[in-house]
């Protein structure tokens, strides 16, 4: 963007360029069930979740899966949902056997999420 303000808002340190971001919800069967409005590249993951209508669409006892950067467990607990994210490494530098089991399960499901996100990113209409 020509505007310095807009350029700074859209710049993503992670991607090292101007970007826009969106939240995408995917059902356990791989169907896209939610797409948020676009956010500027410097919007935090937590801010995107809080400013989207995702919370109003949830049902009691829903479980959401996300990257480690989505530190929204408290927000979800307050509305009766759980958050499934990979465990963070502890002080000893090793995961417990239960954490290894959880991380493997999350990784096996995460593959389907990544495939759905890739389909959205590379979508093109047929000529």
From TrEMBL:
Location of the DDE Tnp4 domain: 1-124
InterPro entries the record matches: HARBI1_dom
Keyword Metal-binding: yes
Cofactor: a divalent metal cation
Keywords, alphabetical: Metal-binding
Metal-binding is among the record's keywords: yes
Domain of life: Eukaryota
PANTHER family registered for this protein in UniProt: SI:CH211-262I1.5-RELATED, THAP DOMAIN PROTEIN
Protein name according to UniProt: DDE Tnp4 domain-containing protein
């Amino acid at each position: 963007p020509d505007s310095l303000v807009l350029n700074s808002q859209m710049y993503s340190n992670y991607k090292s360029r101007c970007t826009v971001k969106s939240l995408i919800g995917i059902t356990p069967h791989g169907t896209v069930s939610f797409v948020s409005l676009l956010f500027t590249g410097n919007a935090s993951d937590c801010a995107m979740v809080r400013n989207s209508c995702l919370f109003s669409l949830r049902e009691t006892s829903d479980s959401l899966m996300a990257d480690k950067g989505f530190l929204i467990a408290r927000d979800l607990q307050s509305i009766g949902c759980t958050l499934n994210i990979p465990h963070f490494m502890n002080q000893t530098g090793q995961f417990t056997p239960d954490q290894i089991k959880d991380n493997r399960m999350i990784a096996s499901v995460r593959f389907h999420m990544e495939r759905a996100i890739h389909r959205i990113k590379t979508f093109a209409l047929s000529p």
